[in-house]
Amino acid sequence: MAENSELARQKRHYGLIRERLTRPGIAARRAAHIEELERQLVAFARDSEAKERQIAKLEIDLADAAARLLAQARILLADREKQGSDGEDGDRPSVDEIVAVVLKDFPDVSWDDIISVRRERRLVRPRHACMRAVYEQRRDLSLAGIGRIFHRDHTTVLAAVQAAGGSETVY
Asked: pLDDT tens digits for 62-117?
């Protein structure tokens, strides 16, 4: 008897749940909820596109700023070279002159190739030769300073100098 009453209670309970799920208001609420989610999705897509455009604009601005900074650095470097040659060491060659002499042996390589980020095999020897020549002829420049000129780390300059000089210790 207890089992029949429990079974009857479960049937009533499931019947009420079925009735609630099949009411017309539930389907309308689900449809409204789905429409709201679709509106939110469209809004998120628009927002995402706007942010992508903003990121692209910022990347262009960053590239422009980097180019301006590089141009200013070249101007400052040229001024520094001129000031250095006007002082006591008037016979000291500029970095540009040293690199031009070295690059005569490598006719297919330009200064832009030397300072580029490319790591092609054809550029490694001339780049290292230029770094070594600058290091040997301009002892007033530190390894870090030479690295900045060539857009490299000071350890790259150190490796280039030591590769040519054998086991000589460079500080």
From this structure: 888 888 888 788 878 877 776 665 554 557 899 999 999 999 999 999 999 998 88
Q: How many domains does the chain have?
A: 1
Pure H helices in the chain:
2-21, 24-86, 95-103, 111-115, 121-137, 143-149, 154-165
Q: Tell whether 114 is covered by a domain.
A: yes
pTM, two decimal places: 0.48
Query: For residue 23, what are the CA distances in angstroms to 20, 29, 168?
Result: 5, 11, 90
Rounded CA-CA distance 135/8 in Å is 97
Q: Which residue carries 């042996």 as its tokens? A: 105
Q: How many CB atoms lie within 10 A of CB 143?
A: 20
CB atoms near residue 149 (< 10 Å): 22
CB 127 within 8 A of CB 160: yes
The answer to whether residue 71 sits within a structural domain is: no
